[in-house]
Fold this sequence. Notes:
binds tetradecanoyl-COA; Thiol Ester Dehydrase, Chain A; 10 strands; three-stranded antiparallel beta sheet; globular; seven-stranded antiparallel beta sheet; mainly beta
Amino acid sequence: xxxxxxxxxxxxxxxxxxxxxxxxxxxxxxxxxxxxxxxxxxxxxxxxxxxxxxxxxxxxxxxxxxxxxxxxxxxxxxxxxxxxxxxxxxxxxxxxxxxxxxxxxxxxxxxxxxxxxxxxxxxxxxxxxxxxxxxxxxxxxxxxxxxxxxxxxxxxxxxxxxxxxxxxxxxxxxxxxxxxxxxxxxxxxxxxxxxxxxxxxxxxxxxx
Length: 208
Ligand SMILES: CCCCCCCCCCCCCC(=O)SCCNC(=O)CCNC(=O)[C@H](O)C(C)(C)COP(=O)(O)OP(=O)(O)OC[C@H]1O[C@@H](n2cnc3c(N)ncnc32)[C@H](O)[C@@H]1OP(=O)(O)O
């Protein structure tokens, strides 16, 4: 077992090294607070709208993006899906690792937004790539908030192939832990000078 401090902000990461399998675990703080279940939560299976139509992860006005679609899961879980298009290729026939990381980033951000009804940005993200993911696979990412400490939001997510090549809903093909920070609307004010279009959705950042 190897323990190290990751990033300049000292996120404690413990990497467990095994002969056949490598995974990392994230040490959660002792004073973690579990968020209350929102009173107006729609229950499992409800669509979760895109947060910004130009978003590379979920926007429907971003032709090269992942086009992830989200629904609510059990409890505070959020379920995201997308198909691994040919343009997301890294090694021959398989997904590029950065694309999977983008999907986790999006999915865990959406989980924060659904649980806390607050805007968040990613501060730290860690990924375990457990299995190669072929082009054409439909990935399902189940994400949730594990708890908060002040503005810090601790999240986890697992990905499975649920349709297409190598589909097996019992096999976790990748997992992720992430620290998100709750920010105010002023955080996005700085981006308004650079944005490339007008918002088209109710929750679009530039509309807030
Ligand atoms: C309606 C709106 C809808 C919105 C939809 C949202 C859905 C989103 C879906 C989209 C998904 C895609 C999302 C994207 O891709 S977001 C794009 C990628 N992320 C960014 O661009 C973020 C860039 N970074 C920043 O802007 C600032 O650094 C932030 C805002 C993150 C913090 O700067 P700020 O000055 O505000 O706060 P602070 O410095 O006092 O820090 C506060 C606390 O956090 C702790 N800390 C900070 N960093 C780290 C770290 N790396 N490891 C460990 N800890 C860290 C820090 O120690 C402190 O802890 P404590 O002192 O309390 O103990």
